[in-house]
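To: structure desk
From: M.T.
Subject: fold request, one chain
Message: Could you run this one when you get a chance? Sequence is below, nothing fancy, just the single chain.
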Amino acid sequence: MVRPVIAIVGRPNVGKSTLFNRLVGRRQALVHDVPGVTRDRLYGSVSFGGWQATAVDTGGFDPATDHDLIQAVSRQVKLAIEESDLVLFVVDCRVGVTPLEHEIARVLRKSHRPVFVVANKAEGLAQESLLGEVYALGFPRVFPVSAEHGRGVAELLEAARQAAPVIAAQPEGEGPGERELKGRELWEKGLKVAVVGRPNVGKSALVNALLGSERVLVHEAPGTTRDAVDTPFSYRGRSYVLIDTAGIRRKGKVSAPLEKLAVVMALRSLERCQVAILLLDASEGLTAQDCHIGGYAHEAGRATVMAVNKWDLVPRGMVRRAEVVAQIRDRLPFLDYAPVAFTSAVTRLGLEELFDLADQVAEEAVKRIPPALVTKALAQAMERRPMSAKGIPLTLHSASQVGTAPPTFAVRVNLPDKIHFSYERYLASSLRQAFGFTGSPVRLLFRRAPMRRARRRR
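Reply: Done. Structure tokens follow.
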């Protein structure tokens, strides 16, 4: 049975994202006391007494605006309404009904979707006494709720659950329950791929190109994306969760609290993904901030693919791909294991290759090598390039793989505290040459070898 889809809509700053976080049971959407925080559609799973649904958070809706960015947000809201089975129309009961909300009500009536009006910020009886004008919107079902404190949310979910059989009985279509979500298995089993980079390098445009639809908002102004937007989908029979993130700027340039939250969520996406696509701008070249973001992916231990985006903007014959790769290897030596792809979100150049590389590095990151082969490869590396400290040669006792994603090896030697980082890098490169691990950092954990017991003389 297809799970019902519940769209949360309303004008800016009425508490839509707070309600969304309350329904999904975690802080998935950014919340800040300024209007216009949310811009993209955010999907989350709702569970209530064994009943499951999909909630969709949306940006502030203003159907009559002429501002191009707000118009783009409104298009995202209209898409959420079209694919929904139930609409939660959120209003601020402390402010009352505004002319903009009457305009939104007219749009919702034309959509022919069932609508529940959620009178948010109703913390007590004093606020509930102001609900009279809310009924003037023309929708009979009004629920006083405090999304911040959880008051009235259970009653709202119970009403939505009672409406679920009616929702499921409507003509079946390939809404987000089938096309994007297809059950919880896509969220749990899909390969999580995060697209990271500095602002305005084309992350959202690339995500839309990979999905083949206008899933996230794209605008020429930097910093358009704020939330980390997860989109499950299927491609060539394999499940993915594509994560669009906010642009990561230098710490010294991030001052606004909202932007700090967006950067924190982008960095958290690196922690929860399996593959990171580090997006670079071909028209601007490699920058110091690109190197910093690459360092974040390396420290997080993520399998990484570097994508040189906007390659269509580079004049033909001006620079060769090999020259760009050489520059990347020179500026990012710690990411020498990451393959490089050349893409264009506009012309769809290199998108299939990008999927192939993401699949490849994901498989390499979870590869396991038997202990005997690991020990043999490291022993040969030490023979080729011996190391000693104060005249004592470094000797290998044993080695084994103790983890994946990233591949991690426990190495028992006699001098674990004397190994220089350059020699450690040499041993990691030797393992990479022997076994691959394309796209993943190789971690070595040096341990002291057990002392050999002297044989007792008879």
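Reply (cont.): The first strand starts at residue 5 and ends at 9. Let me know if you need anything else for the meeting.
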